[in-house]
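Entry for the shared binder. Reason: the reviewer on the internal report wants the predicted structure included alongside the sequence.
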Amino acid sequence: MSIGDLFYSAYERRVAKGLDRRALPRHVGVLLDGNRRWAAERGADTKTGHQAGADNIEGFLTWCEDVDIEVVTLWLLSTDNLARPEQELAPLLRIIEAAVAKLAAAGRWRINPVGALHLLPADTRAALEAAAGQTRGFAGMTVNVAVGYGGRQEIADAVRSLLTEGAAQGVSIEDLAQSVTVEQIAEHLYTRGQPDPELVIRTSGEQRLSGFLLWQSAHSEFYFCEAYWPDFRRVDFLRALRAYADRHRRFGG
């Protein structure tokens, strides 16, 4: 082991030891950003970048598990990404399918697909549904895999579901309009029944949400990391948790 490796290991242990375990989030959302730029800087193709990003997911979930995170939401593909050229999109979908199948096969986490699954190709949708079915009874950490996900799309789908449910119960549009509540809309989101994310992490240095968990992140703390997702290390995650724990959370202002 090199001197650099020894220094890194000592620093990582120090950050981990200094964490206040009583002040950690229950739900962490992550925008896994920077795969394409990571590849471009190495002279590699886009597929190589996406595969490198996929290879980093299982380790990340293990780090979350180590500090008792209850829910993780991973944004793997947005609704906007579905418009990418077929020569890029098709390999990316295969990588996502394989990555989700691997997570399910690990036998440790409950896989929950979130997104407009009806917009996805049949093979991708089937792979996500198979992973969900395979892990449905697991008692471990819930892992939301956001594929074909967009925050605006989610809110539109939630309102549509709420209206459809009301109509099936014989409630008029006028009565629904008068009685609808924030809580009712929340009950129709993709993440219904889960705590909202207290911490949202974005890699690659971008400092925007891009539509990720728009509703649920109203009171989230945000952490932006310069590292591209394939290079995101345990110490980067621990730093994000430390930053979260050090903040005094304010709700409503």
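Summary line for the report: The mean pLDDT is 94.
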